[in-house]
Fold this sequence. Notes:
Strand order of the largest sheet: 9-5-6-4-3-10-11-2-1-12
Structural class: alpha/beta
Shape: globular
CATH topology of the largest domain: Rossmann fold
CATH architecture of the largest domain: 3-Layer(aba) Sandwich
CATH superfamily of the largest domain: Vaccinia Virus protein VP39
Helix content: 25-40%
Number of helices: 12
Mean pLDDT: 84
Largest sheet: 10 strands, mixed
CATH class of the largest domain: Alpha Beta
Number of strands: 12
Amino acid sequence: xxxxxxxxIYTTKYGQSYLGDSLHLLNSLASNSVDLVMTSPxxxxxxxxxxxxxxxxxxxxxxxxxxxxIKRVLKDTGSFVIDLGGAYQKGIPVRSLYxxxxxxxxxxxxxxxLAQEFFWFNPSKLPSPIEWVNKQKIRAKDAVNTVxxxxxxxxxxxxxxxxxxxxxxxxxxxxxxxxEFYTPxxxxxxxxxxxxxxxxxxxxxxxxxxxxxxxxxxxxxLRWCKEFNxxxxxxxxxxxxxxxxxxxxxxxxxxxxxxxxxxxxxxHAAEELSRKWISFEQEKQYIAASIFRFLPQESFxxxxxxxxxxxxxxxxxxxxxxxxxxxxVNNYCx
Length: 334
């Protein structure tokens, strides 16, 4: 799958999970080999988090340090999708522009193309920031992330028909009896609504506003983390988000890479969609716990042992040739 010098911490049918510094690991990937880089980096927040976010003042330069390698490994038809949460400037109710600066500099300095901007709306997000929303009540809650879809060329691989959404109730009624609801003609806006408008295409084209609740509560990953008293990664995105872009921008057998994998939601989404995947994570406890996403349910009684061995085995992400393969999920004897 790859020419990374290190051995993966664990492998699955389609993927490989690596422990180490993602910039060093990216450097080991072959040029023009990746179909999609899908990631959600640690955000530029005001306070340090356990998952390793950078200070706002340093964040943009830090994140852009990955840009040359990401562009190098992408195929000409490949895409780079990056989820960035919003933030406020420290101590004042004024928004940071860091996520927009990242976008502009990726395009201006590294010549990425903005294929399209997406916005992920999380309706289940709790009101935040507390000071401006709950206490002073001078701002609305922050519930939308910017998701930049970037590419190396003007024509990255994409097929929007693979991510159709369910028709609205009104559209369903129209399809049953089109003549009752509209007459084919040119509208004042200039849109020409033809008689083909009532054709059932199996679903509607989605908008670039993705409403996905981040309300995971009963996944195997969470249940087993709780059962074994393992720390849950605190900044997970919902699997439906990477699944949308993996379906939209890749085909089965294509390679998906997440350079800040955390609990490896992207890898699990790719696995379920029969895409090859590679994930990078520098925190050993998170990469060890991410194995819970991939183990079969019947392995529950050995899952904690597997986690402990992944956590305690010596594996150095910075001395890549010495990193050893610890587990191959498919070959582990349950």
